[in-house]
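The instructor's notes for this session suggest beginning with a concrete chain rather than abstract definitions. Hand out the sequence below and ask the class to guess, before any prediction is shown, which regions might be ordered.
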Amino acid sequence: MKDFGIICAPDLVAHIQRDEQGLITCGMAMGDILAQNESLLVVAAPGEFKATPTVGAGAMRFLRDDDTDAFIAAVCSQLRGDGMAVVTVEYKNDELKIDASYES
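After discussion, reveal the predicted structure:
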């Protein structure tokens, strides 16, 4: 399941507990990370993830652009590239709304 993992946003919550060998047994906040992944894909610029340099829509580069079609296309492309089924992506009144989920 790509929508379940360590919750990093807004803050990483860690209360680490280790066993006798020093291995982590619990302490990381786990849960639904769909919105977190969407946010990372929208904000990250290509090249920020060294292992996957093409990942990221790079929202900052679209800030001064009046044409939102390229921004929406970049976001959709990134979401699909991460395995999501995209229903809608809208940008109106300085608000981005994403309706997407990981494909089963």
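Then share the key points. The first strand starts at residue 4 and ends at 6. The mean pLDDT is 91.
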